[in-house]
Amino acid sequence: TAGRVTANYVCWIADRVIYEGCNIYEDCCILTFGIDFMIGAIRAENCRDAGAVFDRIKKFGMQATLIDANAVYSIKQLEAALALAKMAMKEGRAVGKSVEMEFLLWLSCEIHVGNAIAKAGAKEGKEIVFVLLEGNENEAKEAAKMVGLKISEAAEVGENKKALEIFGISENGKEPEKML
């Protein structure tokens, strides 16, 4: 658990933290892992039937998932979680049986699938983020439409400070006492 929490904490603050001129996000989450990937994410309106959407994702053979929009701080957080998930899969130490599930586990800082779904999984009647694990934003828009999602007016995944509350991270970027 500590490894997931520490690694995901870096994901949360990657947008804002510069350490001695090095971008922590690029240096730690991408270059160190040596994993090439693309990710596309788009906000979609309230999801009424997540199960049906997941069925269509599977039917079309997409490598995609649905996330609670309130659990997403930034696109860099999604990219870092995907890099960590792919690295875990590549090294044979993944907890999840699929890259989608491993992605959700890293994104949520959890090691149990049920807890990950409860914390960051799509919730019925709430805004979601459709994440295409192999694609760009435009491809994510098209794929989201294919599976029956309606794109939100504010479709771009930008900074969402509500997500900090879910994970107990203060806005000034310090870890809460319980994590230290």
List keywords for this structure.
single chain, 180 residues, mainly alpha, three-stranded antiparallel sheet, two-stranded antiparallel sheet, 44% helix
Give unreliable regions as ranges: 1-34
Give the SSE string.
Answer: HEEHEHEHHHEHH
| Shape by Cα distribution | globular
- In terms of structural class, how would the helical and strand content be classed? mainly alpha
**Percent of residues in beta strands?**
5-15%
How do the strands line up in the largest sheet?
3-5-4
The CA-CA distance between the termini, in Å, is 13 Å
Percent range for helical residues? 40-55%
What does this structure look like?
The longest helix has 16 residues, at 75-90. The chain is built from 8 helices and 5 strands, in the order H-E-E-H-E-H-E-H-H-H-E-H-H. It is 44% helix and 11% strand. A hairpin with a 2-residue loop joins strand 1 (18-19) and strand 2. It has 180 residues and is mainly alpha-helical. Strands 3-5-4 form a 3-stranded antiparallel sheet, with helices on one face. The protein has a two-stranded antiparallel sheet with strand order 1-2. Helix 1 packs antiparallel against helix 4 and helix 4 packs across helix 5 (99-108).
